[in-house]
């Protein structure tokens, strides 16, 4: 059964159809959110919130876009709200989150600094550019799908990605 | 072969790394990059940067996380379900309570449509009205035009609606035939 069939089945009262949609998208959706928020519990909470909203909104889902892009747009809105309230991570917190016992503390710190520099440059991007990069690089979505999730046209999504890459290059400078 | 500026070349590099270029654009870019060290370096660094972004992926949280994820999500869904049901219940209860209040006001609050002046037995109240009109416009036998007309109309209307008093009430034609006392 494809997503549209499952959505129709759910509307007919088959609760199991929604469970199947959860099984299909819980992992990719949570991992997508995790790449942005960098916290497993927060990612879990946000993706579950997206599913709850989808569950409540599915009877009114018009089906203009696919279930996936609709679900992702709900999730991205939840992430936007979350990021508005959240403080930035300190480097020590990042080191605690991703420990690697094989590396020396010096090597670890250099590597983490590079990662932090890249992440900070990403976080400084306008939110739409940042989410476009996330959806394009990690999710491999085409610009039409990105536009359905974030709003706007495929052309503007393409422009956002282009601008984001140019801005990141300027922020990171030569040799990153 | 057409030559391009470094600004144009960097635009093409981003497009090439993202979606790829047409054969013509690709050949234009390659011609430029071969003769431009700046653009060669820019392309390498941009490709490296995009690879770093793609590689900055958090680890999968593991099976336990996903098992707990599913369990806790179903718990949240189950929690949301009765809340929605209760929402419907309270809405329905509110509608019934509203309808009940309206019923109580109309039927138990003293309003009886059978006693309404526009319904039912006109004979019981028509003499009182005539009396009032007589007080306003003068006594019998010198009845005023208004009171005479009022009586005629009310008696005629009562006859059409039927009576409950059992008294002899003149019919419409009989009232019509009565001589006008004022004339």
Q: Residue ranges of chain A: pLDDT <50 for 5 or more in a row?
A: none
- On the 0 to 100 scale, the average pLDDT of chain B is 73
Unreliable spans of chain B: 161-166, 169-178
Number of helices of chain A: 9
Globally, the shape of chain A reads globular
* Protein chain pair with the most extensive contact, residues per chain: A-B, 38 and 33 residues
CATH architecture of the domain at 1-86 in chain A: Orthogonal Bundle
What is the mean pLDDT of chain A?
A: 86
Radius of gyration of chain B: 48 Å
> What would you give as the CATH superfamily of the domain at 1-86 in chain A?
RNA polymerase sigma factor, region 2, helix turn helix motif
Provide the β-strand percentage band of chain A. under 5%
Order of helices and strands of chain B: HHHHHHH
Stated plainly, the CATH topology of the domain at 1-86 in chain A is called: Rna Polymerase Sigma Factor, Chain: A
Number of E-state strands of chain A: 0
Tags for this entry?
heterodimer, A: 176 residues, mainly alpha, Rna Polymerase Sigma Factor, Chain: A, 76% helix, 0% strand, B: 183 residues, 3 domains, elongated
Written overview of the protein:
Chain A has 176 residues and is mainly α. Chain A contains 9 helices and no strands. The N and C termini of chain A lie far apart (46 Å). The model of chain A has no long low-confidence stretch (mean pLDDT 86). Chain B has 183 residues and is mainly alpha-helical. Chain B folds into 3 domains: 6-55, no CATH class; 62-111; 126-177, no CATH class. In chain B, α1 (6-18) runs parallel beside α3 and α5 (126-137) packs antiparallel against α6 (145-161). Chain A binds chain B through residues 18-19, 22-23, 26-27, 30-31, 34-35, 38, 40, 44, 48, 51-52, 55-56, 98, 114-115, 118-119, 122, 133, 136-138, 161-162, 165-166, 168-169, 172, 174-176, and chain B through 10-11, 14-15, 17-18, 41-42, 45-46, 48-50, 52-54, 56-61, 65-66, 69-70, 72-74, 76-77, 80, 84.
